[in-house]
Amino acid sequence: MALNPVDISGSRVLLAGPGGQVAAPIVEALAPICELTAVARFSDEAQRQRLQALGVHTVRGDLADHRSLRDCPADVDYVLNLAVVKSGDFNYDMRANAEGIGNLMAHCRSAKAVLHFSSTAVYEYAGHEPRSEDAPLGDNHRAMFPTYSLSKIAAESVCRFAARQYDIPTTIARLSVPYGNNGGWPFFHLLMMKEGMPIDVHPESPNYYNLLHSSDYIDKLPYLLAAADSDVCTLNFGGSEAVSIEQWCRYLGEMCGLEPSFRDNPQAFGSLQIDTEKMHSVIGETQKDWRQGLREMVQQLAPELIRD
Ligand SMILES: NC(=O)c1ccc[n+]([C@@H]2O[C@H](COP(=O)([O-])OP(=O)(O)OC[C@H]3O[C@@H](n4cnc5c(N)ncnc54)[C@H](OP(=O)(O)O)[C@@H]3O)[C@@H](O)[C@H]2O)c1
């Protein structure tokens, strides 16, 4: 491991987007050890109350509107941006996703590090070629989420601009496929299999991704923060082992006595395997075996389906 991880315990952290799939396990891990403030629109008041019960200070704010962030603490040690919106409205999604990270960074200029979560959806489709961080960008997820890839690409640029302008050490982590005991894409596939629904896959199969378990992305947080640089460290962030949709669906099928049915669809997201070389050199390998992670997920969310 090249880097010494930062010691996040006792630090002041501002986290945007606490209610999301990826953020929820991070909030649970950080709430007991940090002074954690979470900002979101909190359309779901119950979610806000659950966070407050964990000891998280909550601020209602919309990243699209910098004035609404004024109640966020500015003198934090670390900023984690896990907010994202996919409303389909280009004006709003560009503001919230792209200007949003700029608004956060302009508000927290003295942060020791900013960690902005991006996505491998920023890469242009390139078949089975593992994508390195300097691979061409493209509108990868257009067919299903029209504003997503473009606004995530724009967000990265705003993030780099703010890091350089305000001299804020920053890491951009391009997530592959996060999952864990609170679900994720493979769990949707399992639910589809249970209902006998076909799973659309790109015809250039197998369709490889890098499943990233929540225990690994939590373990790697202090390393990602340590990697932050005002010239911005951009990293792929996925499981060290690539695994295809077809493989994980077959494995879930064997576990639950279900037969996945795949349907070729050129509009489906194609293979998006990451090149892990830079990630491994900066933050090291991930630990969780994907089969074990998937089994734990099903044990937690749908134990009644397990047959083996
Ligand atoms: N989930 C995946 O499979 C996946 C894959 C690759 C990358 N990622 C990346 O991981 C990060 C988290 O994704 P996720 O899927 O966990 O997100 P999510 O489940 O959609 O949750 C998004 C969070 O952002 C908040 N939010 C949305 N719009 C906001 C706004 N305008 N201002 C303030 N907060 C706002 C939401 O709360 P309110 O609605 O209450 O504001 C919610 O807490 C994102 O950067 C995403 O691009 C996710």
Helix/strand layout:
Elements: E1 12-16, H1 23-30, E2 35-40, H2 45-53, E3 57-60, E4 78-81, H3 90-107, E5 113-119, H4 148-166, E6 170-175, E7 177-180, E8 183-184, H5 185-194, E9 199-201, E10 208-209, E11 211-213, H6 214-226, E12 233-237, E13 243-244, H7 245-256, E14 262-264, H8 277-283, H9 290-301
Parallel strand pairs: 1-2, 1-4, 2-3, 4-5, 5-6, 6-12, 7-11, 9-14
Antiparallel strand pairs: 7-8, 10-13
Bound molecules: NADP nicotinamide-adenine-dinucleotide phosphate.
Residues 16-23, 40-43, 62-64, 82-85, 96, 117, 119, 152, 175, 177-178, 184-185 line the site of NADP nicotinamide-adenine-dinucleotide phosphate.
Task: Walk me through this protein's architecture.
The protein has 308 residues and is of the alpha/beta class. It folds into two domains: 12-178 and 211-237, Rossmann fold (3-Layer(aba) Sandwich); 181-208 and 241-305, UDP-galactose 4-epimerase, domain 1. It is 35% helix and 18% strand. The chain has nine helices and 14 strands. The strands form four sheets. A seven-stranded parallel beta sheet has the order 3-2-1-4-5-6-12, sandwiched between helices. It has a three-stranded mixed beta sheet with strand order 8-7-11. Helix 3 runs parallel beside helix 4, helix 5 (185-194) crosses helix 7 (245-256) and helix 7 (245-256) crosses helix 9. The longest helix is centred in the middle third of the chain and has 19 residues, at 148-166. The radius of gyration is 19 Å and the shape is globular. The relative contact order is 0.15. The structure holds NADP nicotinamide-adenine-dinucleotide phosphate. Residues 16-23, 40-43, 62-64, 82-85, 96, 117, 119, 152, 175, 177-178, 184-185 line the site of NADP nicotinamide-adenine-dinucleotide phosphate.
